[in-house]
Amino acid sequence: MAKKKHKPRATFRKNSQTSARENDLTRGYHGDGESDAAAEDAPSHERVSGKGRFTRKRTISGAELVEGESGPQLLPDFDRELCVAGRVLRVQGLVSTVRGDDGRSYACATRQLLKQIAIDARHAVAAGDRVWLRPERSSGIRQESEWHEGIIERVEPRHGALSRTSRNRRHLIAVNLDQLVIVTSAAEPRLKPHLVDRFLITAEKTGLKPLVVINKVDLIDPADLMPLVGVYAQLGYRALLVSAQTGLGVDRLRERLAGRVSALSGQSGVGKSSLLNAVEPGLGLRVGAVSNETQKGKHTTTTAELLPLESDWADGGAVIDTPGIRQFALWDVEPEEVAGFFRDLRPYVSRCRFPDCTHTHEDFCAVKDAVADGWIDSRRYESYVQTHAGDEA
Ligand SMILES: Nc1nc2c(ncn2[C@@H]2O[C@H](COP(=O)(O)OP(=O)(O)OP(=O)(O)O)[C@@H](O)[C@H]2O)c(=O)[nH]1
Ligand SMILES: [Zn+2]
Question: Can you tell me the ipTM of this complex?
Answer without folding.
Answer: 0.98
